[in-house]
Write a structure and sequence with these properties.
Layout (H helix, E strand, L loop, with lengths): L13 H9 L2 H39 L9 E7 L2 E10 L2 E9 L5
């Protein structure tokens, strides 16, 4: 082990480096434990979000008609006091729509 102080990562701000340099060894160990736990939490949240997004895409893809692109979203249009779901997407400067189903009033 070297007797020289460690070199901080270049992506840390000066304020963070200065704050850490002023902290006691006990406080630094607390910060290290917290930072590790926080990193694991954020990675887990990102994984869960990615899995949810993939499941949503897979679910939508199974529900999509052949002539509707995967980038389409579902919108609700009201026509003559009735509400309907439509697939909607953009092709160049135009917005395209395709009927999906009536909106269930119980939802």
């Amino acid at each position: 082990m070297s007797y020289d102080p460690p070199t901080p990562p270049t992506n840390l701000s000066i304020e963070v480096v200065d704050t850490l340099n002023e902290a006691t060894s006990e406080r630094l160990r607390d910060v290290a434990r917290y930072a590790e736990s926080l990193a694991e939490h954020k990675e887990r949240e990102a994984r869960l979000q990615e899995e949810a997004d993939e499941a949503d895409i897979e679910e939508r893809t199974n529900d999509l008609p052949d002539d509707v692109p995967a980038k389409a979203t579902i919108t609700i249009k009201e026509i003559n006091d009735n509400r309907y779901y439509y697939w909607q997407w953009r092709e160049g400067d135009k917005i395209k729509s395709k009927y999906k189903s009536p909106v269930n009033p119980d939802e």
